[in-house]
Design brief:
The chain is an alpha/beta fold. It is built from nine helices and 16 strands. The chain binds flavin-adenine dinucleotide. The site of flavin-adenine dinucleotide has 28 residues, from helix 6, helix 7, strand 15 and helix 9.
């Protein structure tokens, strides 16, 4: 009953969302097998941390064509390896990349694919709980399949360091052809030097339509900088062209799990909350005491963000030694 987890990594450091997927996979049925697949020669560096999280073997796929993300190639590698090791389930994080790859893998083998899973029991058929409709409902489902193909909702399952020994590393070169590599990433545009990414920030300060304009983000940017955080926004803002889509938090934007989320002039639509529900604490700043976001917030200030945010910035500056 081996479970195979597709682990995303940056130069051998596994993504937190992939460690969460490993934690869910550990609960998948009896048996000693918990294998991981990392793509790219530098993935072997993940063996120690993955071993601590319960992985016994890390399969490292090395191929000249895998230098850039190529979803069909990744899907082929996943399918072939799952077949070779006899994996009863394949698990990945429900990131853009994880969902893309596992959906393509499912299409290749004509099996069902369950995305955004938060809990699983059984071992074929499996009983799943998964997030639907942007987080507004949890679905209980039964999965009948030869092999379970799952992705795990980010920040819904805690990663768990079990203190295990380093995993064994097994490099291999997968067979790939030109068709597998036809779709691939040609360019990556990073965050500005020194900037913290929205997905990883411990503090995110967001604004919505209440900011009023692109210029209305000045206070929000200042507060984010003072707190060492990132700036986010709602979809109303990206549609208005005030901020780029990379700043959008929500169902069709980035899903975040910071220690603190400050939501200024954001009403709290379901699709927005789907992206920030993982925050440990939410502070809402809104002129409307009836705004829906208040029911999901831990703290609230009823007031105009153009007055409240500069006042918070001033207090922070005052409290800091010069
Ligand atoms: C398929 C689909 C996917 C979507 N995906 C996303 C998504 O990923 N992310 C997302 O955000 N939305 C998403 N949406 C849109 C979502 O439904 C809402 O329309 C959007 O979140 C509203 O943005 P908002 O809260 O900024 O604006 P509004 O709903 O207009 O709210 C503005 C808020 O600002 C307050 N306000 C106004 N002036 C001030 C002021 N001066 N100071 C303080 N408060 C003030 C108001 O009281 C109000 O609560 C999606 C919708 C659909 C249909």
């Amino acid at each position: 009953m081996t479970a195979l987890v597709l682990v995303e990594h940056e130069a051998g450091t596994p993504a937190e969302t992939s460690l969460q997927a490993v934690a869910l996979a550990r609960g998948l049925g009896p048996g000693p097998g918990l294998d991981a697949l990392v793509i790219g020669a530098d993935g072997g560096g993940a063996a120690a941390l993955l071993g601590a999280h319960g992985v016994t073997t890390v399969h490292v796929a090395e191929h000249d064509g895998l230098g850039a993300f190529a979803p069909d190639a990744w899907a082929r590698v996943v399918v072939d390896l799952a077949e070779r090791i006899g994996a009863s389930s394949v698990v990945a994080a429900a990131t853009e990349r994880g969902n893309d790859v596992i959906a393509r893998a499912a299409a290749r083998v004509d099996e069902p694919f369950a995305a955004n899973v938060v809990a699983v029991a059984g071992g074929g058929p499996w009983t799943l709980t998964r997030v639907r409709w942007g987080g507004s409902l949890l679905e209980e489902a039964r999965l009948d399949a030869g092999r379970a193909l799952l992705t795990v909702q980010p920040h819904a399952v805690a990663a768990a360091d079990a203190g295990g020994p380093a995993a064994a590393v097994e490099p291999f070169t997968p067979p790939l052809d030109a068709a597998d590599l036809a779709v691939h990433v040609t360019e990556r545009v990073g965050t500005p030097a020194g900037g913290v990414s929205l997905a990883d920030a411990k503090v995110v300060v967001s604004a919505g339509r209440g900011a009023g304009s692109a210029e209305g983000f000045a206070g929000v940017e200042e507060l984010a900088a003072l707190l060492g955080g990132a700036v986010g926004c709602s979809r109303a803002v990206t549609i208005a062209g005030w901020r780029p889509h990379t700043d959008q938090v929500g169902q069709t934007g980035t899903k975040i799990a910071p220690d603190l989320y400050v939501a200024c002039g954001i009403s709290g639509a379901t699709q927005h909350m789907a992206g920030c529900r993982g925050a440990k604490a939410i502070l809402a700043i809104n002129t409307d005491p009836e705004a829906p976001i208040l029911s999901g917030a831990d703290y609230a200030v009823i007031g105009d963000l153009h007055e409240v945010v500069p006042a918070i910035c001033a207090e922070i500056r005052k409290a800091r030694p010069t």
